[in-house]
Amino acid sequence: MLLLLSACTVWHPPLSGLMLEPAVPMTWDDVFAHPVESVTLDSVVSGRWVAQSKGLINLDHPDAVAAGLKNRDFPIALTVHVIDHPRKGRWIVDTGVAVDEDGDLANIQGLLGSVLSNTEILTPLDEILGEAPLNGVLLTHKHVDHVMGMGDVKKGTPIVGGPGEWGQKGAENALLRKGYKRLLKGHDVRELRLEDAVEIGEFKTWDLHGDGSVWVLYTPGHTPGSLSFVVNNGSPTLLVGDSSHTWWGWDNGVEPGGYTEDSELNRASLHALRRLAEAHDMRVEVGHEEHFSITEPQSPGSAE
User: Fold this and answer.
1) What is the pLDDT of residues 271-301, one digit of tens each?
2) Which of 59, 62, 215, 283 sits at a 20 to 30 Å CA gap from 249?
3) Could you tell me which residues come within 8 angstroms of residue 16 by beta carbon, excluding any fewer than 6 positions away?
4) pLDDT of res. 173
């Protein structure tokens, strides 16, 4: 969530471990030498929000200071990444937005409603999914701007998060717990286990479907269990999540500011992701801006 309040205990749902087919340790060269070309990826902007650039970028970083970045309102995208697999079906990364019968944000009330009051609804999750059944939801992390589309996710659908992501006491104020409970009620929330991960290069990672098509990367820092994803379909794409909210942060290797929980750990994850992407000429999708091919991004602290 792009609002960090005082540390308190937060409700979290009952959890189960995610059972995955065992992966064989290898190198990233080995991974990309065996793509699953029938897997497709489509990234859709479900809504937009406005955040503060001081949260999106560490404005105290020397590179941000040198660039003259200042705090301002900054529009961000709420993106759903749709992954279709020929055998494992449709999975999504993050959930965008869901609306009720009145066209308002679904299951968003109270404090959550006030936090998200400036959300612009573009394409609700149910329209993105269409008639295709949804087999699972992969969350880059649990912040509200990544789970607010849960109203369009069928109860019982596996919701997969990173190690320790739901059990932490501290990122969100306890006043938000009712909102999270409403959003996740009835869902099958699961956590990946570090003991099931294999190490490839700099990352602890999981082979989601057991065929090398989708890799889940443990990239803690923004939150304790933050995840990134590699879609290996012949034109590999790296979904970095909120390890970098913006293109400016990604291009300059500058971690998020006030919206991230552990700046040093976030910085380490971000730099490891950049090395992976550069070494293998990967397409990259950052957390809250569209790809360059869709719109040319602004610097988070630049003048309008």
Assistant:
1) 999 999 999 999 999 999 987 533 344 556 6
2) 215
3) 188, 189, 190, 191
4) 47
Strand partners, 60: none
pLDDT score of 113: 62
Domain range summary for the chain, segments of one domain joined by +: 26-286
Q: Which residues contact 303 (CB under 8 A, 6 or more apart)?
A: none
What backbone torsions phi and psi does residue 143 show, to the nearest 5 degrees?
Answer: -60, 150
State whether residue 148 is helix, strand or coil: coil
Cα(103)–Cα(258) distance, integer angstroms: 32
CATH numeric code, 26-286: 3.60.15.10
- pTM greater than the 0.85 cutoff: yes
Q: Give the C-alpha separation, 40 to 233, whole Å.
A: 7
Q: How many residues does the chain have?
A: 304
What the block records as the tokens of 261 is 């929980």
Distance CA 282, CA 240 (A): 11
| Secondary structure element (H or E) that encloses residue 44, with its range | strand 40-52
